[in-house]
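Sequence only, no structure available. Ideas?
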Amino acid sequence: MKRRIVTLVFGLFSIFASAQSGYEITVNLKNCKDTLAYLTFYQFDKTLIKDTCTHIKNGKIVFKGKAKLDKGIYSLVSQQKAIYFDFFIDEDTQNLELNSDASIGVAKGLTAVNSTRENDFLNYIKFIGKQNEDFEAVRQASKGLAKNDSIAKVSTKQKVLDKAIQDYEQEFLEQNKGTYIGAVLNLKMEKTLKEIPKASNGRPDSLMVYTYYKKHYWDNVDFKDDGTMRNPFFHNKLKKYFDQVVVAHPDSVSVEIDRIMDQTLPESLLYKLLLAHFTYSYETSKIMGFDKVFVHLADRYFKTGKARGIYDDESVVERIVKQSDKLRPLLVGAVAPDLSMINAADRDIIAKMGFESAKTSEEVTKLFYDNNPKINNLFNHLHNVKADYLILAFWDVDCGHCQIEIPKLLEEYHKLQKENKDIKVYCVYTLNEGEKYLKYIAEKKLDWINVYDGVHYNNVTEKYDVYSTPVIYVLDKNKVIKAKRIGVEQLDDIVKLMEREYKKVK
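Reply:
I predicted one. Tokens follow.
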């Protein structure tokens, strides 16, 4: 659903004791032109439809159900899919009546018929709106000033307003401790160090600021309550934590994920959505080395049966386990799996054996064993290549991206050679079209180690998870993977970093 937010209004509605087991939400919206409306709710990173009112008469909108609504933040949404306002539901607030007027702005005219505390909360919303109006007025007034004067004026006003909002929110939070609305506001508020001490250099101690912020980031957040994720703040807070707060290292991320997961109730919806979120995020992460987090999740949760019930299709769990097993030997820091390849120069020998004309796997297997001694003498083993910097590249002659990147790699390779770097390139052609392969090598003058899986021995694309080309790995002199899936433009920096590491060892 495309969200066009008119305003965000969520509140704690106190209602009189009711014996009803279901829910009934009534909105008297004057001058409403809609013929239908939706009741939606926030859940993790999505907005879902809970109910639909298909008959609106004189602006009266009614949602009614036999089962109670789950605790969370809900929204009244127009038939154009725009949010009119948000409101709050918990175990005791299942019978609500709200009044407003669409002609003056739904949020401005919104009142709760049966909740004094909701109206108190609306004062908070109005206060926030007033601060935003004041800031916008200052920003507009500063446009005619010199740049430095404008920045100073706006910055000063921003600090004043931020302080006012923080104080107001803190007071409101104190008044609503122990309530769901208090828990929601707690998620929204930042836990920052109020009095910042000086470091030894006389400047504010940024390390202490960070340490305090990280330590208190999740204060009073209940991961055992599914209602924690049914609001517009939880997912963004979670994302910010892992994007900006946690140290950007796969081991640190894995520790923090486990710490959060350990606070949830196994089999709860929050547990399932969190684990699915983390698994997808780190399986598809573009940050080099963070596939290690995905492997960790597979080992700790999927292989142990702790991921039961997360996916409707159980084959997804099997796929995740299989993929993690494939990635484990390819993680940064692991010794690269060996490859036994055929040199491009020996292609004619392999072709005469019949490998290029073989049609079935049975034919290939027979050819391999019939020619085994000779083939073993032809193998060029990755682990036998000696170099301080060993570039392992997978490519395809017909790949458009490869046709751009391979010449760039060749240029970078020659540059590093001229800098007296002990570097070699083990360049693997992933297909078996020999004539086309040899022609390209000759035309582009690829003067490095050119190999291919001419006898179908390695299953290269599976072994190195090559689902697209080109793919470039960087190995050290011990064949340890130092970088993977990099662009050619990154190679020089990686080599320099490795060079510094070599010097430290000496």
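The CA atoms of residues 35 and 56 lie 5 Å apart.
Hope that gets you unstuck.
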